[in-house]
Each structure stands twice: as C-alpha cells, then as structure tokens.
Amino acid sequence: KAKDNGRNSFQLYSPEMNIVSMERLIMQNCLRIALKKNEFELHYQSKVDHQTQEVVGIEALVRWNHSELGRVSPAQFIPMAEELGLIVDIDTWVLNTACQQRRIWLDAGVECGPISVNISALHFNHDLVYSVQQALEHSSLPPHLLELEITEGCFIQNMKNASGMLAEIRALGVKSSIDDFGTGYSSLSYLSQLAFDTLKIDCSFIKQVPKNAQQCQLVTTIIAMAKALDISVVAEGVETHAQVEFLSDKGCFVYQGYYYNRPGNAMQCTDFLLEFDKSAEHKDVELTLA
Ligand code: C2E
Ligand code: MG
Ligand code: MG
Ligand code: MG
Fold first, then answer.
1. Cys staple from 247: which of 34, 103, 172, 252, with CB 3.0 to 4.6 Å?
2. Confidence of residue 158 (pLDDT cuts 50, 70, 90)
3. In a 3-state reduction of DSSP, which class is residue 95?
4. Could you give the angle at which helices 87-108 and 74-83 cross, rounded to 10 degrees?
5. Which atom of ligand 1 is nearest to 151's Cα?
6. Separation of 10 CA from ligand 2 center, angstroms?
7. Model confidence at 83, in pLDDT bands (50, 70, 90)?
C-alpha cells in the first residue's frame, strides 16, 4: 500500500484493483494452457444471399469454454492472447479446424461458400502465408473455399507489407475480406490499393439502421463505394426485417446476423445448412469433426 498518500508516493493499489488484477492473472494462466487442454471450440455463422436464398459463406468464431471461468467472450480473451503472444497459435488452431470442417461439408455435398477465419494483426504480420498453406495442405481444401477476415489494424502501420501479404494470399487462390469496416482509422485510399474481395460493414453501423438518418447515409455511402470499386459487400449484425428492407433497397444483399441465424457449433450449423438447402441431395456421412 502506498504510504499515507504523502508527497512523492503513488497510490498504486486499491483492494478493488487487486481483485481485478488477480482475476486477470488467473485468466491469463488459464489461457496459456487452454489450447493444450482442448478448451477451444468453433462456432459457425452463415452469410446468406437474401436474393437467391443461398448460404454464400460461413464465418468461424472461436469459443473458449473453461471449467471454472465458464464461457469467456473472444472480445475479452483475444486481446489477452495477443498480449501474451498466444494469438498465432490460437489463430492457427482455428484455421486448421475451420478448414477441416469445411472439407467435411465439401465431401458431404453441402453448399455453403468459403469458410472464413478471423486473422489477428499480429498473425497477419507474422507467418500468415505459411500457416494458410499448411492448413490447406492438411485438410486438402481447395483454396477458393477459404477466406481470411482482416481488420484495418493489420495494415495501419505497414501498408507496403500488407499489400504484399494480400497479394500473396490472392496468388494462393484464397479469398480475403476487410472485417469491421469503418471502425478503424485508416485512410480510404487503401481500399483501392489492396487486393480485397469483400468488405464487411461493421454491425455498429447496421444497428441504428433505419432509425438513425446519419447512420443510414453512412451505410448507403459505403455500399455505393464498394460497388464503384467492384468489391462485394456483406452487412454484419443484421437482425431485423427493417434492416433487410433498407439494405436490399441500397443494393446490399448478403447478410450475416441473427436475422438468419446465430452462431452455433458444427452440428447446429450443419442442421441449419441442411434445413436451408432442402432441395440438395447429401451423402450420408459424418458431418462434423469427431
Ligand atoms: P467479428 O469477426 O466482427 O464477428 C462478428 C461478431 O458479431 C461475432 O461476435 C458474432 O457472434 C456477432 N454477431 C453476429 N450476428 C450478430 C447480430 O445479429 N447481432 C449482434 N449484436 N451480434 C452479432 P463474437 O463471436 O463474440 O466475436 C467477437 C470478435 O472476436 C469477432 O468479431 C472477431 O473480431 C473476434 N474473433 C472471433 N473469433 C476469432 C478468432 O478465431 N481469431 C481472432 N483473431 N479473432 C476472433
Ligand atoms: Mg469476422
Ligand atoms: Mg466484424
Ligand atoms: Mg467485430
């Protein structure tokens, strides 16, 4: 405890802070061994083309289930994993698992477009191309069925490096998208400079559509810009019919959000895909990883 709050002393600790930092410490230690203890699981959420009623992509979202901490949100543990230097291993596990699951759906004849995986900025600037090649090789997944979701944070520091990396990814035949578009602080000029296939409008913009006129104008502008640059556009966090009406009126037809489905484990997602694609004939095989 800091001495009597006197001059030149700092009140570094309060009892509340101690509890918070203790919890953090415990969580950090659990996170370090989570991969080894097999505590991660992937959930999957579809991207649906509203016009054709087809699933055109699936995003893999990591879940951490700890026996005592319970389910920890990725928004909480991903930044922690980045600080602790664990993120490359976790993202690599996600990449491999997602590719294997996509391969299973492919073998079963389930149509669902590419599987997309979120890539942390640290991984992006590390050995991304190698991890991607390995995951494709191990799963024998055709490259066009894999997509990487990258945020603006990945290229904010090093534009040259980022554009080279994206060109390498494209050369492999792998798709790429900008995630959470509009929430970063990078300039718009990168949009035309970088080799992206898809732009994902962040759910924070979609949330207030169509109630908030300013947000509506922003979303309209983003859609128009994507069209002008010949980049496909996906709206994230679509929940309501009013949002669907607004977006389709502006020419954006691919939606990811609770309106169509919530993220679910491989089995739940398989059920959704089979339900959505009733007409197709599927082979009678195991549809999820053991
Ligand atoms: P994200 O990539 O933007 O993923 C979309 C988030 O929106 C997911 O949150 C999803 O569950 C949520 N969502 C989907 N539909 C709706 C909706 O209709 N309404 C609302 N309110 N939310 C919706 P989640 O799964 O908690 O993931 C949060 C973030 O954590 C992700 O944002 C992504 O940035 C990060 N993340 C998740 N998995 C991974 C991973 O494997 N690696 C890395 N590096 N980051 C990951
Ligand atoms: Mg994402
Ligand atoms: Mg997003
Ligand atoms: Mg997000």
1. 252
2. confident
3. helix
4. 130
5. 34
6. 41
7. very high
pLDDT in tens, 45-81: 999 999 999 999 999 999 999 999 999 999 999 999 9
Residues in the ligand 1 pocket, defined by CB under 6 Å:
45, 61-62, 73-75, 78, 91, 94, 118, 120, 149, 179-180, 203, 236-239, 257-258, 263
Count the residues in the chain.
290
Phi-psi region of 205 (alpha: psi -120 to 50; beta: other; left: phi over 0): alpha
The answer to ipTM > 0.85 is yes
Report residue 229 as tokens. 């640059």
Measured between alpha carbons, how far is 44 from 176 in angstroms, rounded to an integer?
18
Give pTM, 2 decimals.
0.92
- To test the pocket of ligand 1, the residue of 48, 58, 61 to mutate (highest count of ligand atoms within 8 Å of its CB) is 61
Residues 232, 251: Cα–Cα separation, whole Å: 11
Closest ligand to the CA of 181: 3
Structure tokens at 55: 């699933």
Measured between alpha carbons, how far is residue 23 from residues 35, 63, 67, 77, 85 in Å?
A: 20, 19, 15, 13, 19
Q: List b or e across 84-119, with b for residues whose CB sees 16 or more CB atoms inside 10 angstroms.
A: eebbbebbbbbbbbbbbbbbbbbebebebbbbbbbb
**DSSP character at residue 118:** E
